[in-house]
Amino acid sequence: MEYFLKLFLSGTAKGSIYALIALGYTMVYGIVQLINFAHGEIYMIGGFTALIFGGFFFSKGMPVGLVLLFSVLLSIMYAAAFGFTVEKIAYRPLRGKPRLSALISAIGVSMVLQNFVLLSQTEKFLAFPSYLPEFKWLQPYKEYINSTQLIILGVTAVIMVLLTLLIKFTRIGKAMRATAQDMHMAQLVGVDINQVISVTFIIGSALAAIGGVLICSYMGQINYYIGFIAGIKAFVAAVLGGIGSIPGAVLGSFVLGWTESLGTGYISSDYEDAFAFIILIVILLIKPDGILGRTQRQKV
Amino acid sequence: MKRRNMVLVVFAMVSLLVLSGTQGVFAAPTIKIGVAGAFTGDLASYGLPTVNAAKLVVKDINDKGGINGQKVELIIEDDQCKPELATNAAAKLVSAKVVAVIGHICSGATKAALGIYKDSKLVTISPSATNPPLTQSGEYPNFFRTIAPDDAQAKLAANFLTKTLKLKKIAVLHDKGDYGKGFAELVKQYAEENGVTVALFEGINPGAPDYSAVVNKIGNAKVDGVVWGGYHPEASKLVQQMKDKGMNIPFLSDDGVKDNTFIEVAGKYAEGVYATGPTDTSTNPLAIKAITDHKKEFGAEPGAFFLNAYAAAQALLNAIAKAGSTDYNKIVAALQSEYVDTPLGHISFDKRGDIIGFGFSVFQVQNGKYVELK
Amino acid sequence: MKPRSILEDIGKSLTIAVWFMVLLFPLMVMKVNVTRGVAQVQFRWNLLPFVGIAAFVLSYLWKIALEWRERRGNDKSGGVFGKIKTLGGAYFAKPAVRTSSLVALLAFAIAYPFLFGMYHTNVMITAFIYVILALGLNIVVGLGGLLNLGYAAFFGVGAYTYGLMWKYVGPSFVASGIDPGWLFWISLPMAGIIATLFGILLSLPVLRLRGDYLAIITLAFGEIFRMVMQNSGNFTGGATGISLIPRPWFFGQKLPPTKAAIYIYFIAIVLVILTIFVVRRIEDSRVGRALEAMREDEVACEAMGINLVKNKLITFALGAFWAGIAGVVMAAQTTYINPDSFTLWESIIILMAVVIGGTGSIPGVIGGAILLKLLPEYFRALAQYRMLIYGIAMVLVIIFKPDGLIPRKRKQYTFEGKEGAK
């Protein structure tokens, strides 16, 4: 039982890591129906920016709390700016064009950003100094969960609630829902869809940056390549939960985390990814639109 | 039409303009040496140091007037450690009429490329391909390496576990890759021969953000030591997550981890980790010179397999000089008969192509440094 | 469209230049290095002006390029290019010209390995393998409209068919004195059939799914295939793979690498021509039409009495067949296979070849595959900037040619006097 609980908690922690990235993924997908392959790269850039600014402020003797605050804020701003720019350059000209074209563009952007960071920074793995606090009271339970995992879990929950509120109750949220439902119709009733899509990318990328800082702090390392793998897993999680649905992305991530963790614990980690993909296949066979996805009616 | 669109090309040009380094062009006629390995992609960090090493050695030689009056020119081809790209890189080098090749970096890519080099009679000398059959199968008489094969390393690791650390029950993890899994399997085999129980033998996904599930599993198996076959990024996550959970059992790994980047990345968690690796030669004056040159030329500490690549380049150029020609048979003979002073020591090669005069030792991280255990 | 002043344009480009200087500042100017757990930042101010100047110039070019693209889009017939195309099209429509240019192309293709040497021959073989793959995937994506992100798995099935044949049947061939090169010719049809079976098997559970859900499921299958190959230990050689796979039998001769490359080159050419022939036949057949109908609208298509399940199965099966064939050629060319050659990334590259060439268009897909495989080879001179430039090239192509380089031409049926349906 104790072993199960440990595995369950590490699955939860892992799930919340996936969720941080999957939230941005699912948001963008929900609105523009684009599998944004570059999302993982934005997450990586968020991590790098935080490392750069964090290092700079720390070397100037700023207290750790402020270092954390400023580096996170700047990394959010920069990731958002990257998301905004990428959308404008590589996705907007393709709106209304075949959907596969936008997908290929996204893959191209992912390659460009990865190699850009490789060339402008380094090909090496770098240590990622964590400025996150450590909770003393958690020490006795260290075999189950650590401070960073707890923070990630908390942040995921907060973001999920905030995003849901944003989409449900604000003006821009309404516009987002309208755009998601029918882009042309939304335009006809006066929604500035360019603006809505830009905002979506900005928010999605900002989330990726938060993910980047937290996850890199947890892993203790960063490298230009971390985005690709994380992006694929997050995408799987988002599809599992029903792509386009905010709570779905979180639930899907947890299901993925638990599956992998319990599969590793009781069977073998050799097939960790296989468990993830098998649960994906099984769930999609039962519910073709994911756990919380809305069933789409087909029209002729 | 009010489109304010920005520029993707900006990325391209910006990076091109800004980053394009200076690459010298040598004058003909020259002795062409191929350098092949992963210079882009996710394994670039293992391949680029080899290019740097080759450049430094060649620069040295050319500054001294070249080999027998001829300048040496490098032809650098990327294979991203992928077999199919490796064959293309190899074909390109053959077409470019190189006389020998330094590379490839990964064992898989090396295997794919060696078929072509063998048929084209080109000496190939790898700084890092440790897969045992490359030399032991006898299939590739043109293959040499400046690193000991994995089985030597695994045997050393297994003996260290049983005789020095006196462990009884261990967990063996690997990264599912050619290199990591190969090492892990050999350690398992030798350790079991020594009477150790291998309670856990599992592959984990390289690049995953979190290994806490498998760490829990290690805890549950109540082992008294962990062996890792693979590279350092995963190793540092593993030790970090193990120590976070209060597990303080010995952690032993391979030369993919015996890299200063591991200590840099894992920080305080690296303390006490054991790794087998090429015997430390950094106090060797030639090694000191190579590293200083690297810092001067490239402004950074050299990366993985740098000294091995440096030695490979030196041994190769020395053999060409001693052979007095670029004839395949003469180079092979010179490599096997001539001893040469390199950053790795006084080395030569045996008939199978494995290095003589340089082997493996066990290291431990002590106070943020790898210390060789005698 | 009112003419804008150049000043206004320059102003905009300046704003963009400033934006990029700010955006790229941390990554370009501040170089981070971490030693002993402390991050240090080194400033490279000298790079900043370059960023600004490049951003300024490029944003200006970009604007012009986008306007050009817009103009071209609005004005379908016009433009010099359009005219050339129409003229060229009419010219090419003449059977004599068409045949003679095809013959010329073929002659060039035959002369190619003798003209350019081993390296270029090898590269061309790889390109041809990708042409076969892309044509196969085009059946699935272009005709059937089913997004498949696990296509590399079928490619792997083919390569492993040959690899395993060599590993298990090879020794007895060698023992009984038969040239193991024969295995290639045995494996070639076998791999096609086995891959087809895999295609049918895997498509059974996914028939209910549509669009991106289908894509992710195929991705999952592709990854599972690779994992099984990786973890199956000694049976498939695991991560170590299978090496020293023999080259195809050629009248009992052991060919040196240059000759062997030429030989495989011709095998590949024949297979490419065969693929083109078959794929064109499929396109114009009853099945091909049904597939196109399915791509346009599944529900309407079903209402018209077309059996969707059967068609989807056929799509996957046909697509997988060619991947299997390509896999065998690949194994014969590299003589070494391991699971790393069949990753998700490989599937993505094949998909890119299809889309960039022009989804559904056979000449487009061929061009796309050749371009995608040749570019990185010829970009080798760019060293470490290769993949960066490659990515940029992909994005540019897709933005300026969103329907692909050679878009698919719909069959047009004209009524007398009246324009037919689009």
Q: What does this molecule look like?
A:
The complex is a heterotrimer of chains A (300), B (374) and C (422). Chain A is mainly α. Chain A has eleven helices and two strands, in the order H-H-H-H-E-H-H-H-H-E-H-H-H. In chain A, helix 10 packs across helix 11 (272-286). The mean pLDDT of chain A is 89. By secondary structure, chain B is α/β, with parallel strands linked by helices. Chain B folds into two domains: 27-147 and 283-358, Rossmann fold; 151-254, Response regulator (Rossmann fold). Chain B contains 13 helices and 15 strands. In chain B, the strands form three sheets. Chain B has a seven-stranded mixed beta sheet, with helices on one face. In chain B, helix 12 crosses helix 13. The N and C termini of chain B lie far apart (75 Å). Chain C is mainly alpha-helical and 422 residues long. Chain C folds into two domains: 1-66, no CATH class; 99-400, ABC transporter involved in vitamin B12 uptake, BtuC (Orthogonal Bundle), CATH 1.10.3470. In chain C, strands 1-2 form a two-stranded antiparallel sheet. The relative contact order of chain C is 0.12. The mean pLDDT of chain C is 84. Chains in contact: A-B, A-C, B-C. Chains B and C meet through helix 1, strand 2, helix 3, helix 4 and helix 7 of B and helix 1, strand 1, helix 3, helix 5 and helix 12 of C.
Question: Could you give a quick summary of the protein structure above?
Answer:
With 300 residues, chain A is mainly alpha-helical. Chain A has eleven helices and two strands. A two-stranded antiparallel ribbon of chain A has the order 1-2.
